[in-house]
Design goal:
By secondary structure, the chain is mainly alpha-helical. It contains 9 helices and no strands. The protein starts with a helix and ends with a helix.
Amino acid sequence: MTKSVIKTFNETEAAIEMTFAKNAAKVYAPFFKAVKDREIAFEMFKGEKGATEAKLQYDIEHGFRNSNKDYLVKGGLSAISQAKFFADYSVKELQDVTGATLGTAYKNVSIAKNASNPKRGKVTNAKPANGAKPSDNAKPANIEEMAKQIVKTLGAKDAEKLSLAIYDLVVAADKDEAKTA
């Protein structure tokens, strides 16, 4: 009995995972083309007076939104964004993607892309060997350059407030060290 239950479960899961691929040609490819056409139209509106209204009218005319500005696409703007991601995929490439929905297909492809091209090194919770302390990566190499960047980012007034707050923290830390010494 259990073997047949597990077999049915596995077959069902496999069939669900291929829903996106099975519908690639009839459902997803045309939707992705419509989203790509929308992006091309939106590019033409850029910089034009009344572009926001023109984009809304385009969306209403083509069924992306209604006159209340609500997205009619299931999943809303995130589904449109995910569709943009797949817009240049061929039908054959889409049929190789696993997932039950656009969202899971997008997630699966994103995970696969990031796995082959990670943005950072592997993260670990392992403690350093021999009780050694981890290196201090937070300490800047050039404090003067960092200060210039802070002033540039925050502006002079906010940078001055920050420097006073840092000074107060340093004074408080010195007092704490004096008490414990």
